[in-house]
Amino acid sequence: MRNETVVKNYADTLFQLASSQDGLEEYRRGIQLVVDLLETDANFRHFLETPRISGVDKKATVSAVFENRLPLGLVNFLKVTIDKRRQSLLESIAEEFSRLVDSDMGLVHFEVTLARESDDGFTEKLKGRLSSIFDCKPILHFKVHPEILGGIILRVGDRVFDGSLGSRLDKMRRILGAKQVHTLV
Fold first, then answer.
1. Which of 31, 155, 168, 178 is the most buried (most CB within 10 A)?
2. pLDDT tens, position by position, 3-16
3. What is the pLDDT of residue 173?
């Protein structure tokens, strides 16, 4: 729980910094570049996360590698994470920062679970409905789970709207009594 709070604080600070310099997208691309490097280059990850290498050496390397590729504010932010020994949280910070940028742009991510693949007509209808209900620009992420039988499960943030046929049948089982329904189904 503590790391979650730290991640949110760092992401919020980075968001304020990027906003003040009108560079939200530039900062998002920059922090994602660093995260991609951490994910693909084990040596770079080890270099940043090992306590055997001094913070001074780490910051000098970060400056040398990123100073001409990333905004100066972002490079300085990376140095602060090294000073505070928070570099292991960079991936989570980048993810939270991206959520803040999306929110600022009016974008909302929805996880949509269906029993089968969605067609284009349904996708456009759903985007229109979600846009009007939530007053946002929806970004849909589809999952297919045949076990829900039909209907839709919609997840936005920490809220879940379950309109699946499977959950409706479960509710009917509870209401009617499990023995009676098991003999019917």
1. 31
2. 899 999 999 999 99
3. 82
